[in-house]
Amino acid sequence: MSATQPAAARPAVAQPTRATLTIDGRALSYLDFGGAGRPLLALHGHLSEGSSFSALAAELGPEWRVIAPDQRGHGDSDRAGEYNRAGYLADLVALLAHLGIDRTVVLGHSLGGINGYHLAAEHPELVAALVNVDTPAELPDHGASPLAFVLGIPYTAATREDLLAACGPLAPMLAPVLRRLPDDSGWRLPFHPQDTVDSENLVHGDHWKRWLATDCPALLVHALRSQVLPVAQALDMTARRPGTAYRALDTDHFVQQGDPRGFTAAVQEFLAGL
Prior knowledge:
The chain has helices at about 55-60, 85-100, 110-120, 160-165, 170-175, 195-200, 210, 230-240, 255-260, 260-270; strands at about 15-25, 25-30, 40-45, 65-70, 105-110, 125-135, 140, 155, 180, 185-190, 205, 220-225, 245-250. It is an alpha/beta fold. It has a single domain (about 10-140, about 200-270), classed as Alpha/Beta hydrolase fold, catalytic domain (Rossmann fold), CATH 3.40.50. The strands form three sheets. An eight-stranded mixed sheet has the order 1-2-4-3-5-6-12-13, with helices on both faces. Strands 8-10-9 form a three-stranded antiparallel sheet. α2 crosses α3. It is globular and about 50 Å long. It starts with 16 loop residues before the first strand and ends with a helix.
């Protein structure tokens, strides 16, 4: 698509259906972009939610039916008692079963990338291919969580303006996704700060065994200015895992926001080859 193409000719952002699956009394909310195309499960990272893949879904449809859950504790999904890998994976397995999807491409960014390749390792029968978006196979533990700064943000506030003011530099990113409280008594973040830190702490460690456990087709989309995935590790991940393609983009870790056109093109090229 040309950069000079008129806005009217560009595809409209897909309008998904939001639905809820109840798991052990807890709501798991998800967006289903619909269509008769092949399924693609899109998993967001921390501080994000399923709607972050709306633009990608618009570009991929109708050949691909994008399913984008708000993973536990994010977006419209309820908070959970635990944020370990077993819990995240159980949610995904339950969601796929609920939708009658027995095999899917899994695309994941950051937290979602780790959950994605762990899902492939634990349930290879469910995963036809992987798209890893700037997600390492090993994350060293440097002590304090890199996301500890969110602990200074209140989960709720009486007004939207008060909550945005407390968000500081994150305000522009969070402004479109703040939620009203159910009783209309105020506003809340789309994530709980303490839950986010607890979840982020549990992604640290050595995940090489899970990354190398499968050989289904995979694409590693690497941000050359990534804050979490060094170039050497990205190249090593590609070389050591059979069937893995590599695409570098000149952006930071938040790939789909930093280079949406490059990200979409990389994913489309990979999917076309499956």
